[in-house]
Amino acid sequence: MNKLMTTREMVAGLRDGMTIGIGGWGPRRKPMALIREILKSDLQDLTIVAYGGADVGMLCAAGKVKKVIFAFVSLDFIPLEPFFRQTRQSGSIEVMEIDEGMMLLGLRAAAWGCPFIPTQIGLGTDVVTVNPGLKLVDSPYDDKAWLAMPALKLDAALVHVDQADSRGVCRISGPDHYMDDWFVRAADKAYVTCEALVDSSAFQDDTAARQVFWERSLTTGVACVPGGAHPTSCAPLYGFDIKHFKEYNACAKEGGFDAYLQRYIQHTDEDSYREKVGGIAAIRALSLPVY
User: Model pTM?
Assistant: First the structure.
C-alpha cells in the first residue's frame, strides 16, 4: 500500500478542535515541516499534547491552540519557550501541566485502550492540586490510594523520522526515539515526515530493523521532507540551529511572532524555507549538541 502524501494533504486531514500529539522532545526531532504547514492553514482550537518546544510555541503564538497538555515546553539552552511563555502568562489558553512520566502513562493508557493507569507519580505534589480533573483511586490489593492517570487519546500524531518507505515503515536511528512510538500508538492516525525515502529492502539490515519502533500499519501517511525537523535537531543527521533559535527568541521581544512568520513561513514552501536558512547542506552541517 502506497502511503506517500504531501504535508499539505496531511494537514488537510486534520480538523478544528482535534487533539494532536507531537513527537520529539523540546528542540529535538520535531515535525516542524508539518507545524509550518499547520501555521499556513485555517486550523484552530487544537489541543496539543507534547514534550514541547518551538512546535508548541509557534502554534500558540499563531492562535491555533485551545489547550496544551505538557510536561515542559523548552528550547533547552533557552529554558522557557518564549511564545509559549507569553501565551501562558496571558491566560489565553487552557493548560494541563503534568510530570513527564505521567504523560508517558497517559499515552500508554490510550494505546492499550485503558481509561487510566494507576501510578504513584504526582502523589504528594501540587500536580494534583493544579489539575483538579485528576482523580485518586483505591487499590483493590492494599489500602493505598493511587493517582489515576487518564488516557491521552489522540486524534492524530505528528512525528519526524530519519528514514521511511512508501508502505509506512519508519526508522529512527538517533540515540533516543523519545516517546514517538507511544504518540503513534495513542493516535487514530499518524502522519510522518522523513529525511529520506528509502526502498523497503533497506530495513532488511539488522541494525535498521532494530530502529523501527512501530508497525507500518499504524502509519497513515509518509512525506519526504529533508531538513523537515529544522530548526530542531534530527540526530545523527544534524543538531538544532542555535543561531536560528536566538533570532526566533529575539522576535518575542521585538517584532513579535508575526515578524518570524512573515520572514520564514508565510508564502513559502519547504524548498524556499530551506534556502532561507542556508540550504540543506547548511542544515546537515549543524553540530549535534554535546552534554
Answer: 0.96
